[in-house]
Amino acid sequence: MELDKFIANFAEQLDDTDPAEIKADTIFRQLDEWSSLSVMCTIAMVDAEYGVALKGDDINKAQTVEDLFNVVKSKKA
């Protein structure tokens, strides 16, 4: 599992945000577009791409995109 690919997959969930703006240290909750729909899309993407079932709590504990990546990575192991 690669961080760069995860960031690209995450950025695809946000229609109105330039993917170039999404970095490992991006605090995703501060993005203008972040919403409950973004949460659901992210959960669905992680399930489809990585076979990991994220919960809302997992997302709430993460601050940055890299934090979220690490959560997914730990659940995949």
Please bin the fraction of helical residues: 55-70%
As for the CATH topology, it is Non-ribosomal Peptide Synthetase Peptidyl Carrier Protein, Chain A
> Radius of gyration in whole Å, from Cα?
11 Å
Query: The biggest beta sheet, please?
Result: none
Q: What oligomeric state best describes the polypeptide chains here? A: single chain
Mean pLDDT: 95
Secondary-structure arrangement, i.e. CATH architecture? Orthogonal Bundle
How would the global form be characterised? globular
Total number of distinct structural domains:
1
The total of helices stands at: 4
Distance between the termini: 10 Å
The helix-and-strand class reads: mainly alpha
In the predicted model, the low-confidence regions spanning at least 5 consecutive residues are: none
> Beta-strand percentage?
under 5%
CATH homologous superfamily classification: ACP-like
Order of helices and strands: HHHH
Q: Please tally the β strands and state the result.
A: 0
Per CATH, the class reads Mainly Alpha
Could you characterize what this model shows?
- The chain is mainly α and 77 residues long.
- It has one domain: ACP-like (Non-ribosomal Peptide Synthetase Peptidyl Carrier Protein, Chain A, Orthogonal Bundle).
- The protein contains 4 helices and no strands.
- The chain is globular and about 30 Å long.
Question: What is this entry, summarized?
Answer:
With 77 residues, this protein is mainly alpha-helical. 56% of the residues lie in helices and 0% in strands.
